[in-house]
Q: What sequence folds into this?
C-alpha cells in the first residue's frame, strides 16, 4: 500500500537546517489532510513501507518566507503578570477571530518586549531524511475526527 489521501502514514525522519539536526523521530499522520508541511507531503505521496529518501523543502513549501513585519515591540503589560518573559520563551496571542497566534520573545528592554510571530523555521530550507515505516487505511473514526488514533484510542 502506498501513501495517498486518507491513508495513515508512519515515517521515521531527521530534519536538518543549515547543517544542524533540529528534529528527529517517528510520526504517524493522516495523508492528504494538511497535517505536515506541503513539500514533505508531496515527496511522500506514492511511496510505500521500506522506501527511504532525502528531500530538500524550500520555505514556500514549508513554513513560508520570513516576514520582517512579524517582529513587533509590545508592552510587558500585554503578558500575564506571573509569566516568565525572557528571550526564547514562547506564548500565544489571539487574532481578531480568536485564532491562536504563536509568538517567541526575542528581546526584553525594560517594559518593551520584542516578539516574533514568524515560525522559528520560516525562511529556512529544510532537509529531511525519511523512511516510510507503514501505510494503512485510516479508520472511519480517524477520518471523522481528522487525526490518527493510536492503539486503543486517540494519540
A:
Amino acid at each position: 500500500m502506498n501513501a495517498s489521501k486518507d491513508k495513515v502514514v508512519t515515517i521515521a525522519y531527521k530534519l536538518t537546517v543549515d547543517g544542524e539536526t533540529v528534529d528527529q523521530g517517528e510520526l504517524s499522520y493522516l495523508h492528504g489532510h494538511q497535517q505536515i508541511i506541503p513539500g514533505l507531503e508531496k515527496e511522500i505521496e506514492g511511496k510505500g513501507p521500506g522506501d527511504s529518501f532525502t528531500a530538500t523543502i524550500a520555505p514556500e513549501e514549508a513554513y513560508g518566507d520570513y516576514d520582517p513585519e512579524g517582529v513587533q515591540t509590545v508592552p510587558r503589560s500585554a503578558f500575564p503578570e506571573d509569566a516568565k518573559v525572557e528571550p526564547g520563551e514562547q506564548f500565544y496571542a489571539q487574532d481578531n477571530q480568536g485564532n491562536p497566534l504563536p509568538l517567541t520573545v526575542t528581546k526584553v528592554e525594560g517594559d518593551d518586549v520584542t516578539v516574533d510571530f514568524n515560525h522559528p523555521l520560516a525562511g529556512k530550507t529544510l532537509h529531511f531524511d525519511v523512511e516510510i515505516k507503514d501505510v494503512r487505511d485510516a479508520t472511519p473514526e480517524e477520518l471523522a475526527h481528522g487525526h490518527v488514533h493510536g492503539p486503543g484510542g486517540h494519540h
